[in-house]
Specification:
The chain is an alpha+beta fold and 550 residues long. It contains 18 helices and 21 strands.
Length: 550
């Protein structure tokens, strides 16, 4: 665009008034032309055709339900596919979805019989039935993708026992099994478009039964078209979804502010959220905030000296200052959490608050002294974090500064970082003493915040976990009692009895400190004023079908 005030000083004073006026008019014409072009460019993103454009920085690796195990792929599958059970919108009430009723469960808790809908069509126009559902779940287990263990560890067999009846045989009773069946990857896919076989994945393809069908899959964008033969009562309120996969939070922030996208959905830095929050308060756009069930925590490797000493792990727990981290690093956009089970579950018990409090440096120094440390012989805590996470780098730096300021030299902190793929590949190898990471649950049940952290199939109290969930998390924690309690709560159908079992597990977690819970996220999504229907469900799902352009 031409700036008139920069052109005028260059005009010779000898120009006639007519020439000056003519030049002025030309500049005005060019300015108007630029403005019209800008408007057309913004509108060309789909802002006037009923389609909604969503921007995100989340990285998409695959959309194959048998291999997808990331946040972004889960959200896409939630909108492209269907599951046997789902949650009533706005609640955590479990309801039938592709199933027509809740399961019939045998007395021993091992057999689940599920009736299926008969009016469902796949995106390729083939009919859905129990055989197709069996094929999809068998493929999920047998193709060996990242989430295969979720079903494979729990299910002995799955069979179509009628044209519209599916029967599961479990390896052990599991009270939360219907909740597990809401995992987005357990959606049916067309047997015509997929095959069963180890590693036989289609990362850029999806043929399911959901309200949207995949029209385009690209490295930086996706296009979801409305499936006009969708069986569900809640039809999409828009004409389709265009998703932009942006390279950085700065790009997401700027793209939203210029109006080039309709919705900014994960992940913005704390300062960017604060800036957009101020704009929302002035009416420039909408802010949608919701309590998240994602927790951030520190893993402590109990096989790494000196973290094998209980007093040392308890001292680290006592030294944590969650309110300070939340206020200074997270800008108040989270909340302190004192258990691995987030506050969204009624079984949550704030054991770390009860046992240690926050920034209890006196207790921390006493415990380290008991372990043989002093200012002359300091304990050195090595903290690792994903190199791409600015948030965790700042948290680690805050912990280091607190130790230097308030621990009188008895505790020192060293900070290291590594790329996320390398970090997660090496966790189970026991390479890192302490790691800052987060957890996004696979399904909405408190079990999914306990079993994947504390359960161990093989090991001993002396040698730690040799095979099991806690090894995979990098803590190598082993407890016979915790294994028993996990098994009991998985079998227990009574909610109150189950709550008591979770309480004891959390007490042991606080005492043994294989993990230190730090904060629980809040989710922030921003939308232009022309968009309605933005909902962040209590289960963290983001349903696209409610979105509507005005």
């Amino acid at each position: 665009m031409i700036a008139i005030d920069k052109l005028l000083p260059k005009i010779s004073l000898k120009l006639s008034a007519i020439k000056i006026i003519a030049l002025f008019c030309l500049c005005c014409l060019l300015t108007a032309s630029c403005g019209q072009k800008t408007d057309r460019t913004l509108n060309s993103t789909g802002n006037n055709n009923g389609r909604v454009t969503i921007g995100t920085t989340l990285k998409l690796r695959t959309i194959d339900p048998a291999d997808a195990y990331e946040n972004i792929s889960g959200e896409l599958l939630h909108n492209l596919g269907d599951t046997l059970y789902a949650y009533k919108s706005g609640t955590t009430e479990l309801i039938p979805h592709l199933a027509t009723a809740m399961p019939q469960v045998s007395k021993d808790g091992l057999t689940y019989t599920i009736p299926l809908r008969q009016d469902v069509i796949f995106h390729d126009d083939t009919s859905f039935n129990a055989a197709a559902m069996e094929f999809s779940l068998q493929r999920f287990i047998k193709n060996g993708g990242r989430p295969a263990f979720l079903l494979g560890d729990a299910v002995e067999s799955v069979k179509a026992t009628g044209e519209y009846e599916l029967t599961f045989k479990l390896k052990k009773p599991f009270a939360a099994f219907p909740s597990l069946l809401t995992f987005a990857g357990l959606c049916p896919i067309s047997p015509k478009s997929y095959e069963i076989g180890d590693g036989k994945f289609k990362p850029d393809t999806f043929v399911g039964t959901g309200p949207y069908k995949l029209a385009k899959y690209g490295s930086d964008s996706l296009k979801l078209d409305v499936f006009d033969k969708y069986w569900g009562a809640e039809k999409p309120q828009n004409q389709g979804i265009d998703m932009l996969l942006l390279s950085s939070s700065a790009n997401l922030f700027n793209t939203f502010r210029t109006g080039a996208i309709d919705v900014a959905y994960l992940s913005l830095d704390a300062d960017q959220v604060r800036s957009l929050d101020e704009g929302a308060k002035k009416g420039k756009w909408q802010e949608i905030a919701a309590e998240s069930s994602t927790i951030s925590y520190m893993t402590l490797n109990i096989k790494s000296k000196p973290l094998d000493k209980l007093e040392v792990r308890q001292a680290i727990a006592a030294a944590m200052d969650r309110p300070l981290i939340n206020n200074r690093v997270l800008r108040g956009q989270a909340q302190p959490v004192y258990s691995l089970i987030p506050t969204t579950f009624d079984v949550h018990k704030p054991v770390f608050q009860e046992m240690y409090g926050d920034a209890n440096m006196t207790k921390a120094k006493e415990l380290l002294a008991q372990a043989g440390y002093s200012a002359a012989n300091p304990f050195v805590l090595q903290i690792w974090h994903p190199s791409a996470s600015t948030k965790r780098a700042l948290v680690a730096s805050t912990i280091k500064a607190l130790a230097k300021l308030k621990m009188d030299g008895i505790m020192q902190v060293e900070i290291n970082s590594v790329e996320s793929p390398t970090l997660f590949q090496n966790l189970e190898k026991g390479i890192y003493p302490a790691v800052l990471v987060d957890w996004y649950a696979d399904f909405f049940d408190a079990d999914n915040y306990i079993q994947p952290f504390l359960d161990c199939a093989e090991g001993s109290a002396a040698g730690g976990c040799q095979k099991g969930a806690s090894q995979g998390q990098g803590s190598f924690y082993y407890s016979d009692r915790v294994n028993q309690l996990i098994d009991k709560q998985r079998k227990e159908p009574n909610p109150e009895t189950r709550k008591a079992l979770f309480a004891e597990i959390q007490d042991i977690l606080g005492r043994d400190v294989p993990f230190i819970p730090l904060w629980q996220d809040k989710d922030y999504t921003f939308a232009q004023n022309s968009v309605s229907g933005v909902r962040l469900e209590p289960t963290q799902a983001f349903p696209f079908w409610f979105l509507k352009k005005q």
